[in-house]
Amino acid sequence: xxxxxxxxxxxxxxxxxxxxxxxxxxxxxxxxxxxxxxxxxxxxxxxxxxxxxxxxxxxxxxxxxxxxxxxxxx
Amino acid sequence: xxxxxxxxxxxxxxxxxxxxxxxxxxxxxxxxxxxxxxxxxxxxxxxxxxxxxxxxxxxxxxxxxxxxxxxxxxxxxxxxxxxxxxxxxxxxxxxxxxxxxxxxxxxxxxxxxxxxxxxxxxxxxxxxxxxxxxxxxxxxxxxxxxxxxxxxxxxxxxxxxxxxxxxxxxxxxxxxxxxxxxxxxxxxxxxxxxxxxxxxxxxxxxxxxxxxxxxxxxxxxxxxxxxxxxxxxxxxxxxxxxxxxxxxx
Lengths: 74, 249
Prior knowledge:
heterodimer; A: mainly beta; 1 helix; 7% helix; B: PmbA/TldD fold
């Protein structure tokens, strides 16, 4: 992750950098315990052979109960 | 004569050969970027491009594909000749087929706003300048605005084919974007912001400026954390990225 933030006592505090999410993808998704109601779409374009069509992708805020963060040893 | 009528006229000449499709696009794109100081000098790079996209006459062998000609010479019969000639050398592809009308009326969408063309160029330049000013004033840690950009386009496209396809599309778009660099005296951090719409009046430069300032400053002082196992919250964009990675792999 190039940009992340520590959450302490329910508030965003210090910025974090250069950390990795470690784990098995499908297993990690079983730890989703909350999805917010802030679903939003981001516009984009998909195309081939000179043709283009507007497309969108979107998700909502999501929480995992537990995930391994790879950072420094200490 | 409309672009669709022109396309139909070209198609009439192709009937009797192989199945044919004609695609044509015309459009105008305007881009400029403010990169030099002093800010008010209007010393900007200004690029104006008029595009006439290639028009295609496609003669298909069973799956083959031939393309010939340019839209600049829309009435030029050599385009058809070239397309037929190319099709002779095409390789077969069983997975390529001509689309056929499905009887469903296409949705009526208004995707073009003519104010892209009627808005004076000075107003567009002023938007880019104001965007740069807002970013510079947004936070003391912003040390440089790498560029402030405005871009818009209008385009029209048609597709007609001997299978009965007949479709026209017109659209426009505009956006402003800005790239900023912030510093805490030790580290630099970049940030960007943009606003997009169908026309200049839909653009919100306040949002673009705010996003750029926020992205450039929020990571100043970031540290690499200790390895740990913890609860994690992903914002919508990160969630979409994570799911894309998990699903693809």
